[in-house]
Write the structure tokens for this entry.
Amino acid sequence: MNNISIRLLRENELSPGEHILRLAFGTLIGLPQTTDFCSDANYVETRSQIDLTAAFAAEVDGQLVGSNIAVCWGSVGFWEPLRVHPDSWGRGVAQRLIDSLNE
């Protein structure tokens, strides 16, 4: 999958990003209804309010397939749950999102 592009996450992609998070983690832990994962929380939108200029999107053929949000608290930096759509697992999307944090 060489056609992965990384760019800033757009505000209109917060809801699809949340869906990908639920689907990815629900799939990972084997929930019968994968999108029920933490359905009472809103991870992507609340994290993006910290600094949307540190929110990255992975796109393949015009489709959002993953995202990641970097957070800096003083001298400590970390990224929020990196999420990749299960259909794109094993194709280098996560690595490209991690690499974007170093650019």
Notes: The chain has a mean pLDDT of 83. The chain has three helices and five strands.
